[in-house]
Amino acid sequence: MTTSADPSAATDPLFGVAGKTVLVTGGTRGIGAMIAEGFVRRGARVLITSRSADVCRREADRLGALGDCSALSADLATDGGIVSVVEAVERTLGGLDVLVNNAGATWGAPIDEYPLEGFDKVIRLNLRSVFALTQALLPLLEQSATAANPSRVITIGSIDGIVTSPGEAYAYGASKAAIHHLSRNLARQLASRHVTSNVIAPGPFYSKMMAFLLDNPEQRAGVEEGVPLGRIGTDDDMAGAASYLASRAGAYLTGTTLVVDGGSSSCR
């Protein structure tokens, strides 16, 4: 990880997130880990989840050396996994200010070979589990929410939910487009309960999903050529976007999709 420590960020009254309680699903790698580390470094109390217990322990140890971080192994595609996360938030954090719905999956195959089981798997984790977990955590989010300082739901979408991708990941793009609209619906319904709902739609960032492209120098160069700013996103780019939405600076935003893609989707 390359996120730099910024001591002033933890205490800045406008952009600070110090003392906030934060859950980051899928927070052990890729974009989730970038976001989790950003919150930990800025003084938040963070709980991360992953399906792998070993990975959870390693990442909690790494982030725990930087600040307050704990981890839970849970499969959010199951109802039991949702329940275990809610119980862990109550037990570990004692409440919740920020929910980051990041856990997700993809499945790519040619249209004639695309398995319905793969489609169902992606939709269940990327869409159904986001709704189910948000619904289950609403009582905790409402406990600390006020009109001036609402609780935040931040869901990780994708530019694949905004523009079509050349790849054949049919369920992934559809799930992300649905997530964007679900977040807007949540924003409308939860505003009176002092809970905001926003989306971060990343472009190219290094993650397990994109490693097959970005680990190849020629293919990486091709990806970067498609970004008007000429590079893939950094840890700071993602951590900064999430921290902004969770801070006082982002308190008046709800129903928005913050596109963090170097201009990839809007400057084509």
Key features of this structure:
9 helices; Rossmann fold; 268 residues; seven-stranded parallel β-sheet; globular; single chain; alpha/beta; 14% strand
Walk me through the structure:
This protein is α/β, with parallel strands linked by helices. The chain is 44% helix and 14% strand. It has a seven-stranded parallel sheet with strand order 3-2-1-4-5-6-7, sandwiched between helices. Strand 1, helix 2 and strand 2 form a beta-alpha-beta unit. It is globular.
**Termini separation:** 30 Å
SS class: alpha/beta
Order of helices and strands: HEHEHEHEHEHEHHHE
Output the CATH topology. Rossmann fold
- Residue windows where pLDDT falls under 50 for at least 5 positions: 1-5
CATH class: Alpha Beta
If helices are DSSP runs of H or I spanning 4 or more residues, what is the number of helices? 9
User: How can the largest sheet be summarized?
Assistant: 7 strands, parallel
| Average pLDDT level | 92
Bin the strand percentage. 5-15%
Helical proportion, percent range: 40-55%
Map the helices and strands:
Elements lengths: L6 H5 L9 E4 L5 H12 L3 E6 L2 H12 L3 E6 L5 H15 L4 E4 L14 H28 L7 E6 L13 H21 L4 E8 L8 H4 L2 H9 L9 H12 L10 E4 L8
Helix pairs in contact: 2-9, 4-5, 5-6
Quick recap:
By secondary structure, the chain is α/β, with parallel strands linked by helices.
